[in-house]
Amino acid sequence: MTYVVTENCIKCKYMDCVEVCPVDCFYEGENFLVIHPDECIDCGVCEPECPAEAIKPDTETGLEKWLGINADFASKWPNITQKRESPADAKDWDGKPDKEALLSPEPGQGD
Ligand code: SF4
Ligand code: SF4
Fold first, then answer.
1. Is the CB of 80 inside a 6 Å radius of any atom of ligand 1?
2. Is 48 touching ligand 2 by the criterion CB < 6 Å?
3. Could you tell me where the DSSP H helices lie in the chain?
C-alpha cells in the first residue's frame, strides 16, 4: 500500500507533510504535492500533519484516481523535503469542492 495526496491539497499546499517523511517521497507541482507510491513506506506519519486532511491511505475506497495522479506526477515533478511559505490564500481554498479542474500539471520549484 501507499499513502496518497488527494484533492483538498490543491491550492492549499501547506507543505507540513514533507518535513516529517522519513524517506523524502514527496514531489512538488505548482499547486499540489504528490507521494511517490513506490517510495512511500506506509509509515502514516504524514497523514495527521496535513492541515487540509488531504493525505489518505490507499486502503480507503475510491482513491484509485488519486493514486494514479500521484504515481504519474511523482515521476515528473521535483522532490521536496523542506517546507516553504504556503500560498497566501491557502485557507480560502481549504475545503472548497471540485478543485480537481484547478490541478496544475506544471512542476513546482522543489528543494
Ligand atoms: S500538508 Fe496537506 S495540503 Fe499541505 S502540501 Fe501536504 S498534502 Fe498538501
Ligand atoms: S506515509 Fe510515511 S513514507 Fe509515506 S509519504 Fe507519508 S511520511 Fe512519507
1. no
2. no
3. 16-20, 64-74, 90-93
